[in-house]
Amino acid sequence: MKTRIKIKRFNPKAGTYYSEFEVEVDESTRVIDALEDIAKTQDTTLTFRRSCLHGVCGSDAMRINGKERLACKTLFQDVSTGENQHTVEIEALRHLEVKTDLVVEQKTLLEKYESVKPYFMPKDKLPDAGEFVQTPREHKLLDEASACIGCASCYSACPVLDKNPDFIGPMALVQAARFLDDSRDQGIPARLEALDSPNGLWACENLFECTKVCPRGIKITKLINHTKRKVKKYREEQSETTSAKVSGIHTN
Question: Which molecular function term from Gene Ontology is one that the record holds (predicted)?
Fold first, then answer.
């Protein structure tokens, strides 16, 4: 079937503008395949990111018909519906500077990500056996957060960032949850500066938009609330007060 693809584009010289292309697709054609066809046969200047093409790297996240999706996992049958079933609109992720077309600058996103120290901080020295041991139950706590592929779909979809661009964002908070739930890790004191702040955990308003768009099905809002409880408990154990309580922020 003939489908019209409307792409919101940008370059420093021309600013923001729209381009429309007509492509031949069927219901099982992926959006990324149509974009590659356009770039090869209609407009070689069209710019977008892609890598593994199997929903693992997260590099081709974009907004397709108003929703954050991975172009490599989105079929035309998923988006060609309603009155405009033969039109698909595509734009770059929100809340990040657009460098060109569908490519965003990730510097701010990665700075926030790095602020939660998303790496292992062991409680003890490596045992003589050469490995840290976890029970299956302990490891299961990490499974969901470990599935994050860093696509930033959740960051783009988050309504809190519309009004507070300094919010650390759900992607960083998912990584914090992954390590705070690790029985071998002792990094909670080092992560508190980023987490226990007005722009950290407490800025989340439980709107669930991050959870709705996650291509890996991660219950992001649930993980954030779980991390809030862990930080509260830690502060109480240290006879300290969370920044939320000091600032009078409602913490759900």
Answer: succinate dehydrogenase (quinone) activity
